[in-house]
């Protein structure tokens, strides 16, 4: 067994599910979707947590290589790499699917300001909390001494506070700043790009056929651009998020058109299992069109009610999905704290592969507990506050319209 074996990862996920199923008050305070007519909420909410942990598994291999051989590199096991990148692809598909579905339902008539208010209160609180912890960690690493000019320091902080829409520069000259959060923040600007683009491309959601051909065109363009740039340009020109967004929008359109095979949960689950197997067998590079295709088919089964033999409908899976944003953002800080700051944990991990897996299991459980606490204390209250502010804005706008008339 190696540090990047897939088998132990599956066992850890099983332990996470059992742990979240325990009658602990902390877990019971996390809302679970009750069964009703909307099975999509079941399957998507149940999927997210596993995607987040796939990415955690991938990044854990980076930390293991750092502390064991002092090299910044990921897993040498192709399957672990694929699971992590697949998790990212489907995360992007989930975002575009949900928001494009909303635009289609309202035929593009979405009030933009309330939408941005809600998204800010959804994304910003946990992000800023992580950035605060990152700032403290960096300043601790640099012994609380300012190693750059005050103006450069302010610009660096502002860049991080602006969700990295322009860049994520090293703070106070510490070159490994992004490593402390495992670089996961790079996806945040892509999220905001989607939010900023929606009011513009929303014109294509006014008609279902217009949406269909727009999504098809976008899929073809982004996939070809990804393939072209992969050959001729450096990795920074990564079109994978945009290709994933396009696929998510296409799936949302197809679902609105009711173009979906008449599959029951069992058939859908078999297709999803087949996609996973084919992905692990035939996909060996990142990114490649075949990987996006398998991810798209898998996700289409999910939104059609496929639950992977009931896995995504488990209350434990839904709870893990609810806290997936905190799991995703906080993973780097947790891995850094246990792999770098706590020397005794680091020494324990390096004794043997078995010691590593035991330590990593403990990190996963602690990360899960912290994510649950953050969801209850920070995420949920802030989402409710954002919803309340947005509703007040809409109400005030309506009152002004009535007064004007």
Automatic annotation (TrEMBL):
Which Gene Ontology terms of cellular component type are present? membrane
Query: Which ranges does the record mark as transmembrane?
Result: 6-27, 47-67, 82-100, 120-138, 180-202, 208-228, 240-257, 263-283, 290-312, 324-345, 357-378
Q: Which InterPro entries match?
A: Acyl_transf_3_dom (IPR002656), Acyltransferase_3 (IPR050879)
Q: Does the keyword GTP-binding apply?
A: no
Enumerate the UniProt keywords alphabetically.
Acyltransferase, Membrane, Transferase, Transmembrane, Transmembrane helix
Pfam families associated with the record = Acyl_transf_3 (PF01757)
Q: Where is the Acyltransferase domain?
A: 42-375
Q: Which GO terms describe its biological process?
A: polysaccharide biosynthetic process
> What's an example of a GO molecular-function annotation for this chain?
acyltransferase activity, transferring groups other than amino-acyl groups
> Mind telling me what this protein is named?
Contains acyltransferase and SGNH-hydrolase domains (OafA)
**Species name for this entry?**
Commensalibacter communis
